[in-house]
Amino acid sequence: MVAGFVWAFIWLGLGTLALSILLYSSSMPETKLLSWVFGVHGAASLAGGFTAAKRSGKRGWYIGAIAGLLYAVAVVLIGFLSQDIGFDSRMGLLGLIAALAGAFGGMLGVNAGAGANARRM
């Protein structure tokens, strides 16, 4: 689970860097960025769920969803503590996206891990 959490934050950092470059190099206003931000969080949760379930080797959707939810809680907690952001409907949407993307990544990860284990035998 810890490896999935670490990979999720690595992907978050890469996505944040990509969005920063997109904002800098285009005329897109920050107000149009919300869907891109949710996309980055979804990709990060997918990567975290994939890694956690691949290392677990079983119950991929469950492990991935838990990894996604833990990622969402950490992001909300960091945002609340550092920026004093209040809780609103976007936080619930973030949790839903993270859980679904993490579950999907977990399903992919457990199957990728099973394929690698079958080749070793």
TrEMBL record:
Segments crossing the lipid bilayer: 34-53, 60-81, 93-114
Keyword Ribosomal protein: no
One of the Pfam families matching this protein, by short name: DUF3792
Keywords, sorted A to Z: Membrane, Transmembrane, Transmembrane helix
Listed name of the protein: TIGR04086 family membrane protein
Biological source species: Cohnella ginsengisoli
